Amino acid sequence: MKNLNKLIPARPLIEKRMKDPEFIGETAAFDEYYKTLVMLKETRKKARLSQLDLARKSNVPVSIISKIENGKRNPTIETLSKLAYGMNKKLEIRFV
Asked: 57 lies in a domain?
């Protein structure tokens, strides 16, 4: 039980993990996923749409929009396209 109370320095663990290509790929993918969620919510708010307004315009249930914006559901490309349409935007996916 004593050892459970000791803190493990994070920096050496992170430095070791950052040398692992799989970890780097997972981290980059999560970063892009998070950016997409933030961009979706910001775009909706700039359009002055509530989640309910967007649900009506995009034909996507408000519960799904909420889960996507809160990171509790992964959106499909089809759903993102519908949401973009509901905000009078175009979904663009690029590999750069």
From this structure: yes
24 within domain boundaries: yes
Residue 77: domain span: 10-86
Number of domains in the chain: 1
Task: Read off the pTM.
Answer: 0.71
The whole-angstrom separation of Cα 16 and Cα 10 is: 10
DSSP letters for 25-50: HHHHHHHHHHHHHHHHHHHHHHTT--
Q: Which of 56, 42, 66, 57 is nearest to 87 (CA)?
A: 57
In the prediction, which pLDDT does 4 show? 53
Residue 9, Cβ neighbours under 10 Å: how many? 7
Degrees (nearest 5) of the Cα angle 52, 56, 61?
70
Domain-embedded: residue 55: yes
